[in-house]
Specification:
The protein has seven helices and five strands. It is of the alpha/beta class. Helix 1 (about 10-20) runs parallel beside helix 5 (about 100-105). The mean pLDDT is about 90.
Length: about 160
């Protein structure tokens, strides 16, 4: 299902060029496999940093490689649809694989938001090089304590 906020990965570069005047664009990415309050607060905070928010999500194979067998819990199309329903999200793009390098290169964020479980030193070096090359400002956002998909999955397994 394709919906208005969905940006096809292969069209992202031309889409971003058309949207250049709407900035500053904040871009973030992740699996967003099982949306919870921590994600929502994080995305609202990210959106507050600029005029628009583009969220990139790993495709199903990428999530499986990152999180292991049994993941994702929700397919990419469902994850994208749920994210796009949030008022703070202006666009969603599913990208292939585990690394966001190509996504970030095409998205050209004015501001890149990443969760506080990262530091500038632990960001993927290729992704950081793309961001630096694009002149993106990197913002590390605080995590919401006690909120994580892994914790939810573990609690569900115990029930």
């Amino acid at each position: 299902m394709i919906f208005p906020k969905w940006v096809i990965f292969n069209d992202l570069e031309s889409w971003r060029a058309r949207e250049a005047g709407a900035g500053p664009w904040v871009v973030t990415n992740g699996c967003f496999d099982l949306l919870h309050a921590g994600h929502v607060r994080y995305l609202q905070h990210a959106r507050s940093l600029g005029n628009r928010l583009l969220v990139g999500i790993n495709d199903d194979d990428g999530v499986r490689q990152l999180k292991g067998e049994g993941r994702p819990l929700n397919p990419a199309e469902d994850r994208a649809e749920v994210l796009a329903a949030l008022a703070c999200v202006d666009a969603v793009c599913v990208f292939p694989g585990t690394k966001a390098t190509a996504f970030l290169k095409a998205a050209r964020p004015d501001i890149y938001a990443k969760g506080g479980d990262y530091t500038l030193d632990t960001l993927d070096p290729e992704e950081r090089a793309v961001l630096t090359g694009a002149g993106s400002r990197i913002e590390l956002l605080d995590l919401v304590a006690g909120r994580s998909t892994t914790a939810l999955v573990n609690r569900m397994k115990k029930s």
